[in-house]
Amino acid sequence: MMLAAVLSGFGLALAAPLVVRVARGASGWVLALLPLLLTVFFAGLAPRVAAGEVVRAAYPWAPDLGVELALRLDGLSLLLALLICGVGVLVLVYAGGSMAGKAGLGRFYGSLLLFMAAMLGLVLADNLLLLFVFWELTSISSYLLIAFDYKRAEARAAALQALLVTGGGGLALLAGLILLGLVGGSFTLSDLLSEGDAVRASPLYLPAMLLVLAGALTKSAQAPFHFWLPGAMEAPTPVSAYLHSATMVKAGVYLLARLSPVLAGTDAWVGVVSVAGGVTMLLGGALALFQTDLKRILAYSTVSALGTLVLLLGIGTPEAAAAAMVFLLAHALYKGALFMVAGALDHATGTRDVERLGGLRRAMPITAAVAALAAVSLAGFGPVLSFIGKELLLEALLHVEGLGVLLAALGSLAGALFVAVAGIVAVRPFFGPLRETAHAPHEAPLSMWLGPALLAAAGMAIGIAPEGVGALLVAPAASAVVGSPQEVELSLWHGLNAALGLSVASVLLGAALSLTWERLRRATPWLERIFAWGPERGYAAGLAGLEALALALTRRLQSGFLRRYLLVILVTALALAGWALVRGGVLLPALGWADLRFYELGLVVLMLLAALWAVRSPSRLSAILGLGVVGYGVALIYILYGAPDLAMTQILVETLTVILFVLVFYHLPRFTPLSARPTLVRDACVSLGVGALATTLILAASATPPESALAPFFLEASRPLAHGRNVVNVILVDFRGLDTLGEITVLAVAAIGVFALLKLRPGADEGRRTKDR
Q1: Count of CB atoms within 10 A of residue 770's CB?
Q2: pTM for this predicted structure
């Protein structure tokens, strides 16, 4: 059933354009039925998973390599699967209202469902290679969604930026997963998770860990790779609410959590992961205060939240793991709601600039109420799940040996930044004097406020009664992260303690920052100038440098002359293969000169003289004749060594080639030597070098003939299976018939292309029109 759940998403993605054409305005509601069914399906498995069962399904994929298409559902993957499918339902419904009337809706829904299926496959994958396949599919579908409005240069640039950053991390991740599989002795996660001690003791642990972290930290927008996430706000709001708050950006966090039993627990892990998370937590929150676009404010606060999750996973204690799972769930609920609120404000007023919004509570009362409820969760203070998550977070930080007080203070500061952001995005647009906007403000339709209302309400409902979620979701997820059973008791009230004091201090500081936000921004322009020199500028400079290098190389290498291309290819082959031969100390066989017959020697001398004549010939036609002699000499060699079929083919091809060359070259201008003497000397040296290399390779290959398991098979099977005595012909026509068919197809396509070029030659149409007249 789990495989069907994943594949159904891909199937619906293909059918999405048809659904849009049939259902029209109700397409969002119709398409949301599948993720709704999947949510019910996974929710039904929650009791089994909470009881400690791991639901697994495996299917043959590459059995000869021992690789299975395996899926695995435990507490961690269940939590993510419910978020992917549950939030997916609301986002699809929301998209039906916010994207109504826009061109390309079928493409948009198809890409969104493609992402949903890929993300679901990622969190369910029980094989490292399968996980990587789904990992890259999320990057590709994200690229398509960010660049949905591809006519805008900003959207295309943001999509490319996200793809390059996360794709580069993906390549590093692939190398890390391969190393991890080799060190752990298996590419199956279920087997690998029990090999943590062996992996950590291996000398390949550090490079494998760093490569995996490169993939995870880029995907989850950790400093210094955080800049791609705010740039991705060029995507439509449903994409931001789904990918960039609730799901895709948490893929890196999921990977860290999933591999914690294998990689965590070392000083290197704690140092790299905790520092990256802590820096990102503070940097994202600070950058959020210097934005005025609602989506960019929320994006930077998402960066900060992701840093908080990474910090907790870097600490790696059971307390920190439980806090991370609660925080992950709470963040997906309130941040998805706030992104949808930002989209509703843009839809109703025509702007997302906070400084141009105000007094909208009367015109948009439902949206204002939803924003206030979600803002309480963002602030993390009140009867909401995020308050429980903040308490657990601060408790976990306080209990870190040696640095507990400092980390808790930094966590409280990050919480204050969250409170400030909550005030900016949920209070300023709805309170104060009404400001003039591009559109007359009006309440959003049902499809645009239902989703955020349910998400915000869920955060409060779970906060008031967290016991069920704690037992069914949080405890199994924390157990999967730690690698051993954990009991997690969630409660709204933990008594008067240090964590509560820090939480109150963060609320007071955040409220002060929110009230003085505009003055703070205007009083610190130097900070914005410093932030402008961040890694995003380095990315832009690197991309510009790469383009300049590509242009320079293209100008140098892509000259338009075939002789230049051949020269580059031959020199490169000569250098690489020649170095390999020299370094490998290839031994050549002793040549049996005594066995050389006089007619063989005469044939060789004739071919050498003909080749020399072709090079030194004063005309094209005589050069073609010289090459023809060489070709017929090769055919004679085939005959002498018992290969008449090859000789026949060589004679036919050589005859046809000579005839065609003569017919074509006859119409060319008179031959004139243009190359300077140094160029001729260079070409002669390259030619002699390539010839010597080819001769050396042939002699080296013949010195140690490889043992082939295929040769005896072909000799034994040609007659009974293919009814042919000529083994070469049988291989080409029967055993490798598809290869031969492919070659014939290529030739046919090339012939069609040549015919089309001839028909489109300059002057053809003009001559035809003249004839018609």
Answers
A1: 9
A2: 0.83
